[in-house]
Amino acid sequence: MYPHLQTQTTYKAAKPQMTAFEDFIRRYNINETFATKLRGLHGYEIVFVCDDSGSMQAPIGHASGPGQQRSTRWEELKKTVSIVVDLASTLDPDGVDIYFLNRKPLLNVHSSKELNSTFTVPPNGATPIVRILRQVLHDKKQEIQKRKLLIVIATDGIPTDNNGQP
To answer: Which residues contact 110 (CB under 8 A, 6 or more apart)?
Structure first.
């Protein structure tokens, strides 16, 4: 379906990844132009920094009908990160790393199913983005010598220190 996305390679691991990538593109009906641009991220070290501060418990939007609850920022983040993890894991051969602001990171994630237990714990705490970015850069110091690093930050607020001060 997307012959321009297929590449010749000498190692066997890339073929299942490309098939997974093509399956993802079809599942979400992504157009060829965008799919080609996404394919350019193949081989990047992909890291997510997810806001799990207390403000992520806030509801967003409007209820879709009578008696229906509004979803929270945390629930929306889980949905978004789940989709992006499934995409990114087709591009990053060792899986994606997910850092949180107030809990331990999840490393080498290959499937959104691996997120379920983490997202069942409610968000709590401050928004120390700077501290976590420094940790990511420290942890990836050796990795970025070999390949490019893509950091995706998902947050709803203003960065704070560990005490919640801007």
So the answer is: 89, 95
